[in-house]
Amino acid sequence: MSSITVAKVLNNNVIIAQHPQYAEVVVIGKGIGFNRKVRDLINLSSVEKMFILRNQEEQEQYKQLVPQVDEKLIEVVQEIVLHILQSSRQPLNEHIHIALTDHISFAIRRNEQNIAIHNPFLYETKEIYPEEYSLAEYAVGRINEAMGVRLPPDEIGFVALHIVSALSNRHISEVKEHSLLIGDLVNLVEDHLEYHIPRDSLDYSRLVTHLRFVLERLRRGETVRETSSLDGLMKREYPEMYMLAWKLTKVIEKRVRIPVYAAEVSYLTIHLQRLAQKKEDEADMQQQD
C-alpha cells in the first residue's frame, strides 16, 4: 500500500507531505492535518476527498495562500471542488485550488469593506457557460452559508470563469500563442513598474489569471458592457496604471488582431494598482529595516 509521510502540518485541512511518486506535495482534505505530527504515515487508500498539488509552482503559491485565509474557507473550497468534480465528471486543472480560494477570500474582504465590484460579464457568462454558472451558483451559495457572508450575484460570474478555466484546462503553458503574449505583457508591466514579480507568487498568479480571462473572452468573441462610471473612477484615481492598462490592451489588439473593449482597461487597472501598491509597501518595509 502506498503512503505519504507528513513533513509539515499547515492547518487541519492542509499538510505538506512526501509522496512516493511526486516527492514533496501539498495535500488538501477535510481533517487531513488533524492530530498529525511530522513523520506520521498516511495510507493513501484510507484517505477520502484528498487533492494533491503536484506542480511545484502551484505548491509554492498555495503554501503562501494558506496562512492568509480562514481555515474554514479552505475546507469549504475543497467541498466545492469535490462537488464540481462529481457534477462535471471531468478532470480539473489543479490551479483551481489556488484561484478559487484566493478569489473568494479577496471577495469576502471586499464585501466586509463594502467595496462592490460590478461584473460586466455576468449575463454573457451565464449564457455561454450555463453548466459552469450553475456550479458557481452552488459555490457562492455554499460560501455564503458556511462563512456567514452575503456575496453579491456578480461573484457567481467571476467564480464561473474560474470553473471554466479549470475544466477546459487552458493553462498558459499549453497554449503557446497566449503564453508568449502573456509573458510579454508581464514583462511590460515589470519594466514600467521597475519591479520583478516572483513567478511563484500570488501576485503573478493573479495577473496571469486576469490576462488569461481577457484573452479567453476575445477568443470566444464575448461582448463586454461599457462601465463608464468605473472607467471614470479608474482614470481619475489611478491615472498612471490606467495608461499602462490602455497600453497593454493595445499590445493585445495588435497581437491577436481583435479589438479589445474599453471596459477591459478599467478592470486591468485594478490589478495593476494592486501590484503598484505591493511595490510601495515592500519599499516602505525596506526603509524601516
From TrEMBL:
This is PtsGHI operon antiterminator. Residues 68-173, 174-282 form the PRD domain. PROSITE patterns: PRD_2. GO terms for molecular function: RNA binding. GO terms for biological process: regulation of DNA-templated transcription. The keyword Iron does not apply. Gene3D superfamilies: 1.20.58.1950, 1.20.890.100, CAT RNA-binding domain, PRD domain. Keywords: Repeat.
